[in-house]
Amino acid sequence: MPPLSPPSPSFSRRVPEGDERPRRVCDHCGFVDYHNPRVVVGAVCAFEDRVLLCRRAIEPRIGYWTIPSGFLELGESCAEGAARETREEAGVEIEIDGLLALYDVPRIGHVHLVFRARLGGPELAPGHESAEARLFDWSEIPWRRLAFPSVLWSLRRFDEVRGWPSFPPAGNPASDAEGWRELEG
Amino acid sequence: MPPLSPPSPSFSRRVPEGDERPRRVCDHCGFVDYHNPRVVVGAVCAFEDRVLLCRRAIEPRIGYWTIPSGFLELGESCAEGAARETREEAGVEIEIDGLLALYDVPRIGHVHLVFRARLGGPELAPGHESAEARLFDWSEIPWRRLAFPSVLWSLRRFDEVRGWPSFPPAGNPASDAEGWRELEG
């Protein structure tokens, strides 16, 4: 039976037996809290010449525009994860046709895998994480209201390979190898 | 102070507040044990026409041959992780020149990112995870003694794009979308 008043978590940093790096180990029960980088999957989704963006209804960067993306969950492929995020955030199905980019954001332990995708149709139904979901003509994209550097990079990459049937994934731009800089608000 | 005899970890599966999926939650301290897929980074590394393989000195698949690969750690980029694994397993530096493949192994929560790389030189110094590190001519590769399906796939992809300056990453072969099948021993 769990105690009625469980103790608060209390972790020490030490090297578990058989390991080579310090990890967080629970002082109460010996649980090793392994942390590994997490995978963020997303997609630049186009319908004809327009691109899908969602206005964030949640922090961080509430009110700013993003491509559908989020953490990959256990049991799904990266492409399935990107399709699920698009379904959750914009209420629409996609067909993925290539990997646009692999971005590393080591300072926060993220690996971003961004796909190129086609929308099944122009009807959108934003989920609870989105205040709004819209298809933008390229000339209308709110460049100064994008949520994250990786959104800007992904859109640029999408434009670079427009019409190409296949392409290598881009990496971080040399000017921002760590994904560090904030976008101008 | 930690208790002298800490209780064993005891987890229940339930949906934490603000979440949408059941997670493992510690009955003692309320710690949420988030599990996300982990990133495995590796590289097919060539020196002139020969390819680097390491014979595993550890389980799983001890005694079988693999490309250098392992879990991405916090604070490193995927390319840095692949270079670290190659340094640890074969004692050699590499120069990465493209992403050969993105393989999903959802049944075990792995995402594999496999790069193509050139070795700095032919001198190898196997680390403690490798019984042996060798450069193989293509005709000598021990196809029936490879450790994992992803090693086989990665080598085939390397061969497919040999001499190509750039290429899209391969995904799982259609015949084995889940990375399920074992190689013949």
Could you provide a short overview of the structure?
Chain A has 185 residues and is an alpha+beta fold. Chain A has helices at residues 78-90, 149-160; strands at 11-14, 23-26, 32-33, 38-47, 50-56, 65-66, 69-71, 94-105, 110-119, 130-136.
How does this structure look, described?
Two copies of one chain form a homodimer. Chain A has one domain: Nucleoside Triphosphate Pyrophosphohydrolase (Alpha-Beta Complex), CATH 3.90.79. Chain A is 14% helix and 33% strand. Chain A has two helices and ten strands. In chain A, strand 8 and strand 9 form a beta hairpin. Chain A is elongated and about 55 Å long.
Q: Mind telling me the CATH class of chain A? A: Alpha Beta
Helix count, DSSP H or I runs of 4 or more residues of chain A:
2
Largest β-sheet summary of chain A: 7 strands, mixed
Helical fraction of chain A equals: 10-25%
Task: Tell me the structural class of chain A.
Answer: alpha+beta
Mean pLDDT across all amino acids of chain A: 90
Q: Got a strand count of chain A?
A: 10
> How many angstroms separate the termini of chain A?
51 Å
